[in-house]
Amino acid sequence: MSNLELFSGTKATKPVNVSFRLPYYTQWGQSLLVCGSEPVLGSWNVKKGLLLRPVHQGDELIWYGSIAVRNEFSCEYNYYVVDDKKNVLRWEMGEKRKLFLPLGISGGDFVELHDLWQTGGDGIPFRSAFKDVIFRRSWSLEIERPLGVKNKLEKADDVLVHFKICCPNVEKETSVYVIGSVKKLGQWKVQDGLKLSYAGDATWQADVVLEKADFPIKYKYCKYNKAGHFSLETGSNRELTVDSSKVLTRCILLSDGMLRELPWRGAGVAIPMFSVRSEADLGVGEFLDLKLLVDWAVESGFHLVQLLPLNDTSVHGMWWDSYPYSSLSVFALHPLYLRVQALTENLPEDIKKEIQEAKKQLDRKDVDYDATMATKLSIAKKIFNREKDLILNSSRFQQYLSENEEWLKPYAAFCFLRDFFETSDHSQWGRFSNYTKGKLEKLTSKDSLHYDIISFHYYIQFHIHSQLSEAAEYARKKGVILKGDLPIGVSRNSVDTWVYPNLFRMNTSTGAPPDYFDKNGQNWGFPTYNWEEMSKDNYAWWRARLTQMGKYFTAYRIDHILGFFRIWELPDHALTGLIGKFRPSIPLSQEELESEGIWDFNRLSHPYIKQEFLQEKFGTSWTFIAANFLNEFQKGHYEFKEDCNTEKKIASKLESLAEKSMLLGGEDQIRQGLFDLLKNIVLIRDREDASKFYPRFNLEDTSSFYDLDDHSKNVLKRLYYDYYFHRQENLWRQNALKTLPVLLNSSDMLACGEDLGLIPACVHPVMQELGLVGLRIQRMPSEPDLEFGIPSQYSYMTVCAPSCHDCSTLRAWWEEDEERRQRYFKSVVGSDADPPSKCTPDIAYFVLRQHVEAPSMWAIFPLQDLLALKEEYMTRPATEETINDPTNPRHYWRYRVHVTMESLLKDKALKTTIKGLVQASGRSHPGLGETNVQENREKTSVISGKQQLSTSNRINGAPRKETSVL
């Protein structure tokens, strides 16, 4: 390769030869490329980057490439996987790499860069969950020397080796050393090894001048403290060689990735905020109750508390708003969780008395959403009226308003208009239906007549922010991660759809894919996202949303992560979730179908209704149904009338007929029958392009499909499986890689993805690549041939749990199905005996131990499942402990734990049992000292067997295949 910058006038300057070396396994047709900030590496244009060449060395595939540069050369660079046209297929995660040539390097010298591919998992220790909580230090590490090489070369056969390693978790008065087979590396004696200097950002470095005769060298990194104790990194020795057949390499710059330690593993508890019960709460869990929950978590050996979404959901003004995944605002917190007693230090006696009376009335088995909201807002309003001037003029409030006004003012204005017009459907707000900044300024002006109402919403958000912030900081100091939840959708009647209507497709609806819960799916009713529009400002709405969450949480769960690959999209007139399509997806074209001999598109895409179907579904009432809902367009064949050709129209007409007492049967039964007829199609015609079609989910189950000729059946079956399982994979992968990195980079929280259901093949590789932690529920295994998951075989980058909020608790699941219980007892417990009919504490202990001993990074248990360890807490019927019934779109989210946190804190026996499980599994727990760390590691190696090492797939730190490593 020529480089004109190497020439000055007519006399050539000898270049420095810089070679890149990276172990990496690719698929057929893929190549590795290095691209950087300088022209010789493409100036960040990947198409002009340097293609590397692969060489097999033993079990490794090494990629090489070289450039010729000046001896003062420096640049930034990164590696990319590309296809044969240099289209980017994936790129490494993390910060841009920096290259500085050492001093003393002269023209003609050879410099080698030995790099390792940077995965998303490599960045996990730098997420706030670890950096600011788990590895939080009361002392600071001072930078001893900045990045770069310090030594110089003197002799002709000297080789300068620069060691660089990342080690984010270093105890006080502990140093990092490299020891190895040569004298200058201590000949394996730690005290004589090469001490590394701290360079900032958890990076340690040192360089040493070796002689050519010293190679090959074997080496390892280790930690060494003042007391003389050391811990050597795990795995096989690292090895460094030089090729003696070539010109002598003068400098080797080693980027050795992470110091290899046994993977950190922790445990946590999951409970919705509204379910927590305390002696101080007012009918529902409150943010300040988190301090009690954190204390209990610490004493039970837990490093994490997981919550459901905490955003305001006050859309309908009734108990429907108990659904925490339908946000009125993705920025505002829910007033439900406010502690009114903490609004002021000067509570008057009459309000104190009112609070005490309310406590008695609201201290019920379940949350009374309506009464609790009304009571809290009423009391808060009375306190506000007394202290509004003091609070609103305070410097703390003014700072809060200044930092949050971009979302806070629209939110307060929305709440005012919602109450004024008595609906959150902003299309009904007259001239305020269309949001403008000018209208907002008038609504929120201090001179307006309704400013008190507007500022009351400011006041509530200010206080609830302060209370959650207090609890969050308390958790961080106690070494406990607060894990939030990022809903996939927002309510179509929300602040966000009012202010940013162009970001949403309001004529469509988000649903759960039909496989997710049942054969009909579930219509969540959220508008789908307009990703194209969102991309124009680099997803600013999403970035702001994650930044807001990062104020309180150090980890979060991405609800239905598949939605970032593709979403199940329904027409707005749908009430159920079956007749939908994936967005984005590649449809079947009319041309494609015609080439396969498929021609009758109206027959396939319109409801196929024969007289015999009507008689079968409705019996003697079929003539009434036909007369009111259908037209006979051909002898014995029917179609829906215009006023009832959608699910919403059918529901509306049925309601009208029921009011007139004209229905001859049950309304629900007739509705279901008509819905079934409406869905009796094989293809769904695209509403935007009539020449494109989508195969209906489970089309083989329809009588429309059954009546087709064999040729059409075979063609449509083949195209169906191609659409759902093959042709979309690359499109969905590309879609996720546009959006998910933006989310992950907009905050430093640890991200976990809820990846249950029918998972496309592209999902797990992308999650692995980006360092996203997945979810494993034993009763919902991702392996199609298993009825029950095997926790001991879970991968490290997962959260494992026996149950979650979207399914029955461990106790309820155990009691639901006798035959399933027997299969579990035989295949998982390994016993042919009859299992107990109830989930005894012994059964609960067995299941929890399975999970806590799993290789998963996290084992997170619903509080209900932990209470099953003690009979005292099993008096309540198990079915009453369920948080959500996913098959019921009008489920009331109201479960409350039947014991207070104060009582649980006093229960030493339960805490001891839980902490014993955590300790015996080798998982980390708050207050774990250095001595216990080593004991835990030894236990881990016994418990986890072959799964113990996150680095087990590496040779010299290089991944044999794409794996995320912590």
Report on the architecture of this protein.
Its EC number is 2.4.1.25. Belongs to the disproportionating enzyme family. The longest helix has 27 residues, at 395-421. Strand 39 (954-955) and strand 40 form a beta hairpin. The protein has 27 helices and 40 strands. The chain is an alpha+beta fold and 966 residues long. The model is unreliable at 1-11 and 929-966 (pLDDT under 50). 31% of the residues lie in helices and 20% in strands. The strands form nine sheets. Strands 6-7-3-11-20-12-16-15 form an eight-stranded mixed beta sheet, with no helix packed on it. An eight-stranded parallel beta sheet has the order 35-26-23-22-21-38-37-36.
List keywords for this structure.
about 20% strand; about 950 residues; alpha+beta; eight-stranded mixed beta sheet; eight-stranded parallel beta sheet; disordered C terminus; 27 helices
- What's the alpha carbon Rg, rounded to whole Å? 32 Å
Number of H- or I-type helical stretches: 27
How many β strands by DSSP? 40
**General form:** globular
Low-pLDDT regions: 1-11, 929-966
Portion of residues within helices: 25-40%
Q: Average pLDDT value?
A: 91
Structural class, judged by helices and strands? alpha+beta
Q: Tell me the β content.
A: 15-25%
* Largest sheet geometry: 8 strands, mixed
Distance between the termini: 38 Å
Order of strands, main sheet, comes to 6-7-3-11-20-12-16-15
Region (Disordered): 920-966
InterPro entries: Carb-bd-like_fold, CBM20, CBM20_DPE2_1, CBM20_DPE2_2, GH, Glyco_hydro_77, Ig-like_fold
Pfam family, one: CBM_20
Domain CBM20: 10-119, 153-266
